[in-house]
Amino acid sequence: MKVYLSGEIHTDWRERIESGADGLGVTFSAPVTDHAASDDCGVAIMGPEDKKFWHDRKGASLNAIRTRMGIESADVVVVRFGDQYKQWNAAFDAGYAAALGKSLIILHGPDHAHALKEVDAAANAVCETPEQVVDCLRYVLTGKLPG
Amino acid sequence: MKVYLSGEIHTDWRERIESGADGLGVTFSAPVTDHAASDDCGVAIMGPEDKKFWHDRKGASLNAIRTRMGIESADVVVVRFGDQYKQWNAAFDAGYAAALGKSLIILHGPDHAHALKEVDAAANAVCETPEQVVDCLRYVLTGKLPG
Amino acid sequence: MKVYLSGEIHTDWRERIESGADGLGVTFSAPVTDHAASDDCGVAIMGPEDKKFWHDRKGASLNAIRTRMGIESADVVVVRFGDQYKQWNAAFDAGYAAALGKSLIILHGPDHAHALKEVDAAANAVCETPEQVVDCLRYVLTGKLPG
Amino acid sequence: MKVYLSGEIHTDWRERIESGADGLGVTFSAPVTDHAASDDCGVAIMGPEDKKFWHDRKGASLNAIRTRMGIESADVVVVRFGDQYKQWNAAFDAGYAAALGKSLIILHGPDHAHALKEVDAAANAVCETPEQVVDCLRYVLTGKLPG
Amino acid sequence: MKVYLSGEIHTDWRERIESGADGLGVTFSAPVTDHAASDDCGVAIMGPEDKKFWHDRKGASLNAIRTRMGIESADVVVVRFGDQYKQWNAAFDAGYAAALGKSLIILHGPDHAHALKEVDAAANAVCETPEQVVDCLRYVLTGKLPG
Amino acid sequence: MKVYLSGEIHTDWRERIESGADGLGVTFSAPVTDHAASDDCGVAIMGPEDKKFWHDRKGASLNAIRTRMGIESADVVVVRFGDQYKQWNAAFDAGYAAALGKSLIILHGPDHAHALKEVDAAANAVCETPEQVVDCLRYVLTGKLPG
Amino acid sequence: MKVYLSGEIHTDWRERIESGADGLGVTFSAPVTDHAASDDCGVAIMGPEDKKFWHDRKGASLNAIRTRMGIESADVVVVRFGDQYKQWNAAFDAGYAAALGKSLIILHGPDHAHALKEVDAAANAVCETPEQVVDCLRYVLTGKLPG
Amino acid sequence: MKVYLSGEIHTDWRERIESGADGLGVTFSAPVTDHAASDDCGVAIMGPEDKKFWHDRKGASLNAIRTRMGIESADVVVVRFGDQYKQWNAAFDAGYAAALGKSLIILHGPDHAHALKEVDAAANAVCETPEQVVDCLRYVLTGKLPG
C-alpha cells in the first residue's frame, strides 16, 4: 500500500505514523518538509526573482511535481491540519486527491472540526492522533483491531 | 492476475477458491471477513458513537478503503451471493466493479438466478460452485479445461 | 438537473418525488417500472428461450441500455430500497453510480440501515421519505430549506 | 461559458462579477451563500443530530451535491479567498477543480499571496479584484481588453 | 437518444430502422453510405495517389472523423453484418464502441452467429431484423412492448 | 459539429474556412487573433511585470483558458502552420488535441511536410489549402464530394 | 514492453514473432489458441447448453476475460488477419485496442489491404510478415534497423 | 521516477542529464536519436515508398509507438528546444504530455522564451541548462538543493 502524507510540517506526526506502521509493508511519501528548501527551491535552482510572487511561483510549481507524483500514485492520502497557519495547500491536496477518487484520511484536533467539515465529508476516516491513523492502516491491511 | 473476492463471509468459499487456484500465480484480496471486526472497526479506532447509524458509518467508510483498493487493482472481481441476508454490499461491489470495466464472475446457487439477473448480465461468467470459479481462472490463465 | 430514480417499483415513491419537485426544473428518468414488461422484454422482442436463465438474461441486458443511459447522464442518482425482495439490482445501480462519481441519495426505512451501511456510506444523503428527497433536491437547486 | 464561483461568502464579490459580466453570455453557479442554511441544511431536512460533528457532516455531504455539480460542469472555476476564517473548503474546491483539469482563476488580496502560492501555481490567473476577474472573462470570450 | 448505425451499406436496413423509429425522438447518425464517395473521398479532396494503399488510407482516415464523432456521441451503437464481404470495419466499430462502454445492438442473420460470438457477447441485444432493433429502441425509450 | 481553428494568425485562412463552410452548421472557435492583445492581455488586466518572461507568462496562462475550452469542446481541431515564425504553440495545440483523441486536420504547404511528419502522422487529414479543409468538413458532414 | 498477439490461430505467426523477439525483453500474451478449448470452455466448466447460441455465448464471455486483460495491459497490440474465415473477433480486438489508445500493428497479406483499410488507418504499422513485426518491435525498443 | 527526454537530438544534453542524475534512481527513456534511422525506419522495415510524404509517414507512425510509450509511462517529461530547426515534434510532445497531466520541464535558452511562452506556461519548471534539470530532479526526489 502506498500512502502520501500531506499537510502540516512542524510536528513529528509523519515520523509517528511511519514508525507505528513499521512492518505493515506501507510505502510512504511526503512533500519536502524542509521549510526553507521548499520555499526557495525554485530560485535556488533556476535563478533569483525580484518579486516575491514569482519567487514563490517558481518554488510552488517545482514542488508540485513531487506532490502530484505522490498523490497520484497513492492508495491512501492522509492530510494533517495543525493548529497554526492557513494550510491552504493541505486543503488543496485533499481536494485534488478527492477528485482523483483516492481514499482520504484527515487528521486534526476537534477544534478544527467545523472549519473542516467539507473536507471531512470527503474522507473515509477522520482521526485525532497519528496513532489512530496507524490503527486505520493496520486494520485496512490486516483486519486487526487495536488492543 | 489479481482477483478480488467480494461478498458472503459465512462459508469457506474463499478458501476453496484460493487453495484450488494454488500454483496459478493468482494474487487474491478480499474484505475483512471477521464480522465483528468489520462492524466495529470505526468506533474501535476512532471512538464510540451513541447512534448505531454513525457507528455503522464509521466502520463502513473505513472498510471502503480496503474494498476500493481491492476492486480497483483487480483484473477479475468474483462476487459470491449466499443464501442468507440482504447482501447489498455484494451487489454494490458488483456494480462498482462493472462501472470500472472489471471482468466479473458471479457465484450463486440457482435459486437466486432471477433475483440476480441484472448482476449476472454484467458478468463474464456465472458459476454455482467455487470449483467452477477455479476452473474459470485456470482456463483464463493457462487455456486448460478441467478433466 | 438530471435525476435517475433507481430501485423499488411497487410503491408510488417516484410519483411523490416527481410531483414534489414540480417547478424545480428537474428532469427525471427511471427504469421501466412495468414489472411484467421488464421481465419479458427480451424474449418478447427477440424470441423465446426454453431456459429461464437466458429468458432473464435477454431481458436484463436490454434493460441495461436504459439503466446505463439514465445513470450516466444523471447529476444525482436516487436509489430506493423497499421492504420486500432482494433488490440486488438497486444495490448494483448504487455501486455503478458511485464508481462513476455520481451524487447519490439513498432512500430507505430505518430497519434497513445496518444492512445498507456500505451503500449509505457512499451517499451524499440518506432519506427516509420521498418528501425528504424532494427537500434535498430543492435545497441543492435553490438553497431554500423546508418550512 | 459556465463559471463556478467558489469561496468566501461574506462580501459582494459574486454580485460584482455577475453584474460586470452582464451581456457576455456567462452562466454562473455558486454554493448556497446563506451561511445558516448551508450549515443546517442536513439536519433541517433529514433530522437532528446530538453531535455537532454529525450535524456538520449531514450538511456538508448535502452541500457537496451542489458543489460537485457546479465544478464538474464549469469551464472556469473562480475561487475567492477573503480576509477571515480558515476557508479550507475554498482551497479544497480549488484542488478538486485542478485535478479535473478545470481552468482556475484565484481571487485574493496581496497579503495572502505567500500562503496561497501552491493554489496560485495551479491557476491560469490570479486577480486582486472582482473587476479583474470580469476583465479576464471578457477577454477570454471576446478578445477585448479593458480601457 | 442518439443512435449510430454502423456496418453493411448495401441493403435498406438503416431506412427501415429510421422510419420504424419515427416519433420516438431518436437522432440517428451513420457513415457515408455512398460506396464510391466513401472509397475515393481522400484523393478527391486532397489529391491523387499512385498506390492503392495510400489512396485507401487517405479515404479511411477522413471517414474516421465521421465514424469517431458518431460513435463517441451515441448512446447506442447498432452494428449490422450482412451476407457479403469481410466487413471488418463493422467489427472494428463494434470493438471501438465496446471499449468506450457504449450500449451495443448487433444485427445479423443466424448463419453468422458462431463467427460473431465474441461480438455478440459484448452486446446488449442481438437482433435478426431491423424491426427487432426498432422494438428494442421503442422499449428502451417508452417501456412499450410490441403487439 | 464544433471545430477549433488553431495556429497561424497572419493570413485570412480562418475567414476562408468559415465562409466556405457557411450553411454546414459548423460552430467555429479560435484563439484571440489580435497579436498585440494576445501578447499583452495578462499585464493589461492583472498589472505590469518588469521581466518579459513573466509578462509573457501572465498572458499565455490567460490565453490558455480560451485554448483549452476550444480544444476540449471541439469535434475537430484544425491546425495551420504558416511560412514564418516558430509556431510552437500550434504544434503544442496539435499534441494536446491528439492526446485527447480529437480528430485532427493539419493545414500547411508542401515545404513543411518533412518537419511536420510527426504531427501529420497523428492527423486524419493533411491539407494544403483552406478550401480543402472546407471540402473535408463538408464531406464529413454531408457525404458530398467537391465538383 | 508488453505485446498482445490477437487474431488468426491456424499458422505459426505467434511463434515466429516470439522467437524472433527473443532477447528484447518483450512479454507476450495471446488468446487461447486451442480452437476446441476456446469454443467449448464455457460449457465445459459451467454446464451444457442446448442452443448453440448460448453455448457460444458462455465461451465467448469467458474468453473475453483473457482478451480484455491482454489488451488493457499491453503497450502494443498486434492483430493478424489470415486468409480464411471472417475473423471478426480480430477486427473487434483492433477496434477495442484503438479506442483505448493502444499502439497497433496490423499483419496481413496485400490481398486484404482494401478490406482492412479502416483498420490499417488506425494502426502505427502495417506489416506483411511476422519478421517485419519483429523488426518493428526491435526498432522501437533498441533503435536498431535490420540488416 | 520515470523521465522521458523529448526534443533536440544534436547535442549531448541527454547524456548530461543522465550522468548528472546518476544514483537518484531515475529511469530515463527517449526517442531514437539516430537521425537517419529515425527518418528511414518505416521504409527500411516495411518497404520503400516513392513519395517522400509516405516515406515520412511510415517512419513517423512507427516512431510514435516509442514516443507514446515513453510519455505515457513517464512521471516527468523534459522537452528540450535547441537553436536550430522547427522542432515541431518537440512542441507536439509537450502538448501531448500536458493533456495527459504529466509534469513538464522545458529546457531552452533565453532567446526562445517568447516563442515558447505557451509551452512554458504549461510547465512546472523552465530551465536553461541540463544541470538545472538535474537539480530539479534531485530536489524533487530528495529535497536537497544544490551547493
TrEMBL record, chains A, B, C, D, E, F, G, H:
InterPro entries: YtoQ_family_protein
Domain of life of the organism encoding this protein: Bacteria
Pfam families: Nuc_deoxyri_tr3
Family matches, as NCBIfam families: YtoQ_fam (TIGR03646)
Protein name: YtoQ family protein
Organism: Palleronia salina
